[in-house]
Amino acid sequence: MRCIAETAKPPNSGGTVMGLSDSYFLRNFHPMDVPRIADIVADALREHYEPSLYISLSREWPEGYLVAVDGAGMVQGFLLGVNQTPSEGRILMFAVDAVWRRRSVGSSLMSTFFHRCRMRGLRRVTLEVRVGNATAIRFYQRYGYTITDLFQGYYSDGENGYQMARYL
Ligand SMILES: CC(C)(COP(=O)(O)OP(=O)(O)OC[C@H]1O[C@@H](n2cnc3c(N)ncnc32)[C@H](O)[C@@H]1OP(=O)(O)O)[C@@H](O)C(=O)NCCC(=O)NCCS
Description:
Blueprint: E1 19-20, E2 24-28, H1 34-45, H2 51-59, E3 65-70, E4 75-85, E5 88-96, H3 105-119, E6 124-130, H4 134-142, E7 146-151, E8 161-167
Parallel strand pairs: 5-6
Antiparallel strand pairs: 1-2, 2-3, 3-4, 4-5, 6-8, 7-8
Bound molecules: coenzyme A (COA).
């Protein structure tokens, strides 16, 4: 799996709604989200996965899999994180619909994910990103990630990938 990473308030104690702004909110992933997430992945990440993959990845740590939903109930972004080791989280996929970018959806997802990681006692988060994805690299650096490794030919089209990481 390739990597395909708040201004929001911290999670509410009782429900799945975690952060709220004027126009979107965050909640946990639900299997019914898969078709829309697959569309976002195809468009934003140029990848195509079996629908069952999105569901199986949600089982180990459901709280690490977040979606951003607009006022009409449509998923507009998501962050799929897993508990890679006892002390590390890893972001496997992170994307926001093109129309919804630069409206802090990505920041909300990332900040809430950090909160979830800390609540679980995780100390570090890693991810991979295409070396040519300057927008995402800048975003990650703004969130305290640094480049920790270079993976030659990491992506299916041969592009190299950076591993990035930050301590919590
Ligand atoms: C990376 C990505 C998820 C960021 O999501 P986003 O919702 O656009 O993130 P934000 O809106 O929180 O922040 C993006 C930028 O918009 C700016 N911004 C946020 N709200 C803003 C606002 N109201 N007005 C102007 N700028 C704003 C942020 O400061 C940030 O600036 P930067 O470009 O210097 O980092 C998104 O660009 C994306 O989906 N890209 C394609 C998929 C991808 O590359 N995923 C990562 C794979 S590893």
